[in-house]
Amino acid sequence: MKITNIRFAKLTVPLVTPFKTALRCVDNIDDLVVIIETDTGEIGYGAAPATPLITGDTHSSVMAAIDSVIKPLLIGLDLTNINELTNIVQSALIKNTSAKAAVEIALYDLWGKLYNTPLYKLLGGGNNQLKTDITISIDNIDKMISDSQKALAQGFDRLKIKVGNDIYQDIERVRNIYQVVKGKALIRLDVNQGWTAKQTVFAIQKLDAAGVELELIEQPVKVDDLAGMRYVTERVLTPIMADESAFGPKEVIELITTGTADIINIKLMKTGGLSNAIKIADICQTYHIDCMMGCMLEGSIGVAAAAHLAAAKSNVITKIDLDGPALGQYDPVHGGVNFNFAHISLGDGPGLGIKKIDDLVEL
Ligand code: MG
Fold it and tell me: Distance from the CA of 56 to the center of ligand 1, in angstroms?
């Protein structure tokens, strides 16, 4: 099975509720779809959302990186040598992690099709059922409480609460939500870089004093404030998870060995795809550090790949935050991974298992 062409399409899905974090507010899931064609007629699907504030990548930059740099290196190569292909992708250019991720996802999809096996089985096997948390967007307290109650009614037992725009209001938000969900769901607090190190310690002390127990706090401080994150991690018992500060394997080794973070959030758009994500999971397992498998606000092509990896590495990827597709009003991707509120089911189709995608707009 040889690569003959790489082309692009767009896939847009309206959200049920606008997605609000300390950094942005959006109404749609907007994916750039990367389609790799082969001489056997098999097609591989990958995708990337635009995340200029996190990875620096936009749809245009992803297309340009693939079209002008990555694609010419891959045309004519055989899918049998998946490690050689991912090495080529990773060393084709620096950064551009979303472009690399979208291409790698499509390559691994084809690799699964080559052997007629679901990707998670080729990555080592595992349970094909996962349970994800759901994101509660930052808003006024009443809205966040009603969104949390709705999530409980839908069967979620992990809530990822977005805070990070005003420390005192954030503490009030969490105290109030905790009273509603206590005993029914655990709270993961995603600050999205919204606090300083001292504010984080202050907030955790206040929440501790109020009897609020959190499963973890995610990326409280600015992406480059590693000293600040270490300051927090050394002073509190609540586990601190690195998200925006953790991109590739080298950063993860640094975060772990310096005691900067307790947990690592792996996202394919940060790692540049599955090959580095596999390395990070293995590094974390070696150091007895838990991982979360996360995603951007993205649809079920990229998130399917993340789910396959999470299933195969479930001994170290113990936390699942793959709610992107479930936040959409519908899923235009058929036959792949099924996202049904908290429950994620990996199908038995080859690769990512995708049979058909509605509403693809060819570019
Ligand atoms: Mg995060």
Answer: 15
Q: What's the pTM?
A: 0.97
In the chain, CATH 3.20.20.120 covers 121-357
The arithmetic mean of pLDDT across residues 254-264, rounded, is 98
- pLDDT tens for 15-59 read 998 887 767 788 999 999 999 999 999 999 999 999 999 999 999
Q: List residues with catalytic annotation.
A: 162, 267
Q: How far is ligand 1, taken at its centre, from the CA of residue 114, in Å?
A: 34
DSSP assignments along 173-224, one per residue: HHHHHHHHHTTT-EEEEE-TT-S-HHHHHHHHHHHHHTT---SEEE--S-TT
- Report the DSSP beta bridge partners of residue 10: 32, 361
Neighbours of 305 (CB within 10 A): 31
What DSSP character marks residue 68? I
240 neighbors 226 (Cβ within 8 angstroms): no
Structural fold of domain 121-357: TIM Barrel (3.20.20)
> What does the alpha-carbon distance between residue 271 and residue 243 come to, in Å, rounded to a whole number?
11
What's the 193 CA to ligand 1 centre distance in angstroms?
A: 9
The CATH label, of 3.40.50.1820, 1.10.10.10, 3.30.390.10, 3.30.360.10, for the domain at 3-116 is: 3.30.390.10
DSSP conformation class of 248: S
* Sheet containing strand 129-131, strands side by side: 129-131, 343-345, 338-340
Residues recorded for the chain? 363
Q: State the distance from the centre of ligand 1 to the C-alpha of 241, rounded, in angstroms.
A: 9
- CATH 3.30.390.10 boundaries in the chain: 3-116
